[in-house]
Specification:
By secondary structure, the chain is of the alpha/beta class. Strands 6, 7, 8, 9, 10, 11 and 12 form a 7-stranded mixed sheet that branches. A 5-stranded antiparallel sheet has the order 2-1-5-4-3, with helices on both faces. A hairpin with a 5-residue loop joins β4 and β5. α10 packs across α11 and α11 packs antiparallel against α13.
Length: about 650
């Protein structure tokens, strides 16, 4: 029996100790060992009981030893007293535990052994905070999912090998594939032949551990249309920093790139217009001064021709000089046309008639190896322009087309109506939206490279061999078209051909025929006085000689101020003045003279008017003008006509 008692106490001691540990450990981990009195009291009871059964085990062991020696069952008095005292302590702890539970009102509450009321309140608050945080996180995730799904950008998830595993609504809107169609498909579904290599390179960089980066590329929609997209790719990693996926954000930048390209084209067009204007100012200034020189050479040559009629060999030499002067005059006239400094006579011109006339001329001269086709508009199509310049446009473009087809080909002259919205590119100069008459000159020639086409309207730029072209033909065309308020467009491909499209404002009136050239001898001046104001001394001398030979009295002034003074002192019957002069222009001088004599006839002369005769750069009603260089007959006729008109002389 003593052995059984010893074993029972040892077993109970261990059980109580285990229960005590099972209470203390979780309470300690919860941080409630000091605050949870009820749990602590429970642990103390089991601890006290474990110690008490330990005393009983010791006493049982001593009794077992004494029994073997004396065969008398007797425990040590000291251990008996200690055991009794500890049992009393255990009883006290039990009473404390009992009163504690009754005071908390949780004596029979299920599961309340480890939680006191204040601790329960804190646990409830912690649970509430945890639920609130969990609800907030779930709401945040739901909001984030909505933002991702409704984002205008495409948000796509890929596996490291490029398989699509996430696809939002933005991706569907940009690329056209639904999520059901795109998921589990390779990313090459979007790449097309142009983007496959770029896409493979991106995935390789991600697998190699490269961080986030951005790039742009072209992808394909479901319907096959290309999409210009800007991509931002970011690796998705696990806790070991191994790449387990790729996050791709794609933004459609097609409209932005189109806008940027259009802005670039507009800027280039503006820069081209500025370059053309600068070139025009330079060329026009040169032509203006050169015309004065040509006028001197031409008229002095005519004087020598008149005085050497009995010297045939001298006459032959002078004829060559006169031919060279005429060629130079033609060149300067083309320069002035390019720079809009040439004076033109506007009238309503039927483009169908112009095409027919040019076709008739070219048909005999363009060459048998060229097929010339005229395609008129279905109905009369009139523009307000100089008829000679319209012919010049067609002739220049047709001759260029012929030169671009040395082995033969086809040239088409066509007229029709075109509607523009004002946003067209490569229009030189730009045009507002509206309906315009359109001339087309097309050929099947060699075509032009883009860098050549960009320069063809520059004066003196030519691709023809030396001696075969001046480089002024297309510059002249540009000047004529711009002066008429139109624009020109060029389309060319190497090995295919070239098409020039000329856009001109439409006029509703019928065409008019130009006046016939005058061949009669100029009338005599009968002693009338002409005040000549010209800052080029040599040219002033020639004008004086012509007018004097024509029966006029001539007074000379070198500038506007001197001309005004001479007029105030001596008067005159007609003022012949240059337009462009230093300090005082011809129109200003005419204004001052007419302030004193309103009926004074005035004849302007210039090789470069540059808009000084009106905002439309043409002759306005009531303004007489003669273009430099002029012949003696032209000048005498113009002077007489101006006097007659002003004084109503018949």
């Amino acid at each position: 029996m003593p052995q059984l008692f010893l074993l029972a106490n040892l077993f109970i001691m261990v059980a109580y100790a285990a229960i005590m540990v099972s209470i203390v450990v979780p309470v300690h981990r919860a941080g409630q060992l000091g605050s949870n009195k009820l749990a602590t009291a429970t642990a103390l009871i089991f601890f006290s009981c474990a110690v008490g059964h330990g005393f009983h085990s010791v006493m049982a062991f001593q009794a077992l030893v004494v029994l073997r020696e004396t065969h008398v069952h007797q425990a040590g008095p000291a251990w008996s007293a200690a055991s009794a005292l500890w049992d009393a302590c255990t009883a006290a702890v039990g009473i404390y535990y009992w009163t504690l539970r009754r005071g908390y009102g949780v004596l029979l509450q299920k599961g309340a052994i480890y939680v006191d009321p204040w601790g329960q309140m804190r646990l409830d608050e912690a649970d509430a905070r945890e639920r609130a945080a969990r609800d907030l996180a779930e709401a945040h995730q739901a909001t984030l999912a909505t933002v991702v799904e409704d984002s205008a950008d495409a948000i796509i998830g890929l596996t490291p090998d490029g398989t699509i595993n996430a696809w939002n609504g933005g991706a569907e809107r940009i690329f056209g594939w639904t999520a059901a169609e795109a998921l589990a498909q390779p990313a090459s579904l979007l790449a097309g032949p142009d983007g496959a290599g770029q896409q493979a390179d991106m995935l390789a960089r991600m697998r190699a551990g490269e961080g986030s980066f951005s790039y742009e590329g072209r992808r394909l929609r479901k319907d096959g249309r290309p999409v210009e997209a800007a991509f931002t790719v970011t690796p998705v990693t696990d806790q070991a920093d191994a790449v387990i996926g790729v996050s791709v954000i794609a933004r459609d930048v097609s409209a932005e790139k189109e806008a940027a390209e259009r802005q670039r084209a507009v800027q280039e067009r503006s820069d081209q217009a500025k370059r053309m204007e600068s070139l025009g100012n330079l060329a026009g200034g040169v032509a203006h001064d050169f015309n004065n020189i040509l006028a001197i050479i031409a008229n002095y040559t005519d004087f020598v021709i008149d005085e050497t009629r009995d010297l045939p060999h001298v006459q032959a030499d002078l004829a060559h000089v006169r031919t060279a002067v005429d060629r130079a005059t033609s060149l300067t006239r083309q320069l002035l046309t390019f720079t809009r400094g040439d004076t033109i006579q506007l009238r309503d011109v039927d483009l169908n008639g112009a095409i027919a006339e040019v076709h008739a001329v070219l048909e005999r001269t363009i060459g048998e190896h060229i097929t010339l086709i005229a395609v008129p508009a279905p109905a009369p199509l009139c523009v307000h322009a100089d008829p000679g310049q319209v012919h010049q446009i067609l002739l220049n473009l047709a001759i260029n087309a012929r030169d671009a087809m040395p082995d033969g080909g086809t040239v088409v002259l066509e007229a029709n109506v075109a509607a523009l919205d004002g946003e067209e590119l490569n229009m030189q100069p730009p045009l507002p939206g509206g309906t315009y008459a359109r001339l087309l000159v097309s050929d099947t020639g060699e075509g032009m490279a883009p860098e050549t086409a960009a320069r063809i309207f520059e004066p003196f730029f030519t691709t023809k061999p030396r001696g075969r072209g001046t480089g002024l033909g297309l510059a002249t065309v540009y000047g004529i078209v711009a002066e008429a308020g139109g624009s020109i467009n060029v389309y060319s491909e190497l090995g295919v051909g070239t098409t020039f499209r000329i856009y001109l404002p439409i006029s509703a009136a019928a065409g008019a025929t130009p006046p016939a050239a005058r061949t009669d001898a100029p009338p005599r001046g009968d002693g009338r006085t002409v005040l000549v104001v010209e800052d080029e001394v040599a040219l002033a001398r020639i004008i004086t000689r012509i007018l004097s030979n024509g029966g006029y009295q001539v007074r000379i002034a070198a500038n506007g101020a001197e001309g005004l003074r001479v007029f105030q002192e001596h008067g005159c019957d007609l003022l012949l003045t240059d337009v462009i002069m230093p300090e005082m222009t011809g129109p200003k001088l005419a204004e001052l003279v007419r302030a004193e004599h309103p009926d004074m006839p005035v004849l302007f002369m210039s090789g470069y008017s540059n808009g000084l005769l009106g905002t439309t750069h043409v002759l306005d009603d009531g303004i007489a003008f003669i273009e430099k260089p002029f012949t003696s007959g032209d000048l005498l006729h113009k002077v007489f006509d101006t006097m007659c008109v002003r004084h109503d002389v018949t």
